[in-house]
Amino acid sequence: MTRQEIVQAAASTVEEMRAAYVPHLTGNMANNALNYREEADAVLVYVDDSIAPYFPYTEYPWLSPRWHGKKNPNEGWVERFQEEFARRLAAKLGGKIKR
User: Fold this and answer.
1) How big is the CA angle at 27 (ends 25 and 33), to the nearest 5 degrees?
2) The whole model's pTM is what?
3) Which of 30, 53, 64, 83 has the highest CB neighbour number within 10 Å of its CB?
């Protein structure tokens, strides 16, 4: 498999997961801030915090009294995204992904 095929598989995996795995608080994070790029021998998948500066708050437990002890429904989404991304990419590439 060529480098370009691997990059394309990673990019298509991000695109197919964008709607289902990234919180859609406003749509901005899923539609604009979730990005990917080639770096040396890797494809970096990331949330651009200059586009979605609230990103960290979507991932972690709610601590403010404002939420009256309720759990953040998005808590842990990054880990779930990473695990599913690795599973899907491995299936596309016909191998295993080591992290």
Assistant:
1) 105
2) 0.85
3) 30
